[in-house]
């Protein structure tokens, strides 16, 4: 009952409530959550989330950063990434794959 009230389902009855819950379940199955380690030499090292167009280029969302054992949940654009960080990523498998590829891209020297 509480879950139904939280999602506004207390006013939805019968088949429409079941369809809505089914739709939410299907969408949930398409989302994945994973931790990605930022390697040394990554082009993302030392850059802020604001400077990195992560969402627009990969589609994935950075939802957390662990650095030296401390979690920064839901980081804002001022948060910077550093080699050795564990970065919590939310997205579809394809979006996560794009983020991982971008994280492995090395910085250009020169």
Question: What does it look like?
Answer:
The protein has 110 residues and is an alpha+beta fold. It is built from four helices and four strands, in the order ααβαβββα. The chain has helices spanning 2-6, 14-30, 54-58, 93-104, and strands spanning 32-37, 61-67, 70-73, 86-91. It has a four-stranded antiparallel β-sheet. The model has no long low-confidence stretch (mean pLDDT 86).
Tell me the fraction of residues in β-strands, as a range: 15-25%
So how many helices? Answer: 4
> What Rg is obtained from the alpha carbons, in whole angstroms?
18 Å
Quickly give the structural class.
Answer: alpha+beta
Give the overall average pLDDT.
86
Low-confidence stretches: none
Helix fraction?
Answer: 25-40%
Order of helices and strands: HHEHEEEH
Strand order of the largest sheet: 1-4-2-3
Question: How many strand units?
Answer: 4
User: Cα distance, first to last residue?
Assistant: 60 Å
Observed structural traits:
alpha+beta; 4 helices; 21% strand; 4-stranded antiparallel beta sheet; 110 residues
Compact description:
The protein contains 4 helices and 4 strands. With 110 residues, it is α+β, with helices and mostly antiparallel strands.
